[in-house]
Amino acid sequence: MNGKMKVAVMTDIGKMGFVERDIPTPKDDEVLVKLEYVGICGSDLHYYETGRIGNFIVKTPFVLGHEPGGTVVEVGKNVKHLKVGDRVALEPGKTCGHCEFCKTGRYNLCPDVIFFATPPVDGVFQEYVAHEADLCFKLPDNVSTMEGALIEPLAVGFHAANQGGAHAGQTAVVMGAGCIGLVTMMALKAEGISTVYVVDVIQKRLDKALELGATGVINGKEQDTVQAIMDLTEGRGCDLCIETAGTEITCQQAIKIAKKGSTIVFVGYGKNDLTSLPLNMALDKELTFKTIFRYRHIYPMAIEAVAAGRVNLKGIVSNVFDFDDIQNAMDMSVNNKADIVKSVVKIIKD
What we know:
Elements: E1 4-12, E2 15-22, E3 30-39, H1 42-50, E4 52-53, E5 56-57, E6 67-75, E7 87-90, E8 93-94, H2 100-103, E9 114-115, E10 128-132, E11 136-138, H3 145-149, H4 151-163, E12 171-175, H5 179-190, E13 195-200, H6 203-211, E14 216-219, H7 225-232, E15 238-243, H8 248-257, E16 258-266, H9 279-285, E17 288-291, H10 299-307, E18 319-322, H11 326-335, E19 343-346
Parallel strand pairs: 12-13, 12-15, 13-14, 15-16, 16-17, 18-19
Antiparallel strand pairs: 1-2, 3-6, 3-10, 3-19, 4-5, 6-7, 7-11, 8-9
Helix pairs in contact: 4-5, 7-8
């Protein structure tokens, strides 16, 4: 497909603009996707606010966005499983396929991954993208492309649940009710855990957690979180705790509320490395610590869960912004975190 496309670029810290670029041509193993929705992730906001995450430093102009859904408009000659008109969710990380991690199925740990919106790789706040066909997953008729865009954060939630060995009969606690906390709560319920409590300090997020199926919520600003969980579990503690907030206090609380012999999955990134955790208590309880980095082999299961109605992805979307309004979309998402649960940018026009 010849022609130009509109691309939103970060021109400086806190500043967005638009440029025109050539519509990419798909390679033999790629498809060209007309993007319809792209979610705004916390990492996008962090790059936008500070210009870096750890050793990944933005060099402007830079394209943010790594949560895309859209429709295939062109296919490479080697692509057999997709056709023009298929609606797809795009997994944003292309790995090498040759390292020990790829060969053992742990491709999310590949050191040479090319991942949308991770400097120096541009993201997908743009009208079209050419992407490896094997990383484009066809959506069932009852799953929208907006939901397709949100498969990416949902995959994080399912990976966390899987790492924790989630199963029916457990009592689970999710620390944090941001987007990742909410999709993790829904993933836990989809995997059979009927009792899931959610902890946060922002009541609107907790109200959303209840709306989406949390068994109960705890406002850590108004209650003693540890005591509340102990009261709810009759002093036993939880079988599985997933920490998504990334703060020192919630990590400490996770250890305190965990039942003996249980598992804690650490998901949230903090501003600094943690320096004070009650490790003696963790030893006494013989706890298992797990961590996650993105996800692997999750997209098909996540899409099936949405299609089957076990996960309400539309329910986490609090704000939809037009593509032309991307400056306001980023600013509002940064400055109104108490009210905005999940922002999505609508690339297509009605």
